[in-house]
Amino acid sequence: MTTEYIRSVLGIFGKSPFRPLHTHAETSGKAVKKVSEALIAYCDCDYERVNVLVEEVSELEHDADKIKQSIRKSLTGSIMLPVNVNDLLLFLKPQDSIADHAQASAYWLIARQGKIPDEVRESIMELMDLVLATIDAYEILVDALADLLEMSFSKREVEDAMALVIKVGLQEHLADVADSHAKMVIFKHESELGGAGVYHLIELVNKISGIADSADSAADRLRSMLYRR
User: Are 43 and 121 in contact (CB under 8 A)?
Assistant: First the structure.
């Protein structure tokens, strides 16, 4: 499809959903960054700040949800797109779960208070940093996708997008490794944390890791969407 054709089709049948997709990803990314801030505050036992940040995460998740609904409404039966509408919706679902997992992680922080040993803190923060890196890579990918779908489908641009998909996967793998390491460190400090403390932190690690998993799943859906266009 030519650039002129895509533009004319979108102009006739509706607004492009591709930029809102990036806005949705960006909003979800902001929620993840707030989770990181909340995690630091939690480790510092600054529970008042944790509560404030958790509320901000919740608001961002709600904003992301409204953008998602707007995108879905824009994908009416009359709109013509350079990709399959069902593929686009399948891609949107895991992307939306990024914000969902961010909110779940934030809510879990306020489920229980407790001092965290320094080694445990370092391992969980390492995981959080790698999750943030995964989300950063994912946002770059979605930005590239918006440009690709609104402008052209040159072989070089598609290859560049696929390379970004691979980068997201590599970052998510590093987060998986950090997930396993954090759990080992948590169990190592079981005598200090107690059973409830261990359970709380293991579940926290699972929820934080779920953020990166969602980004990787969305990137895989994106790859399938481009292959099937």
Answer: yes
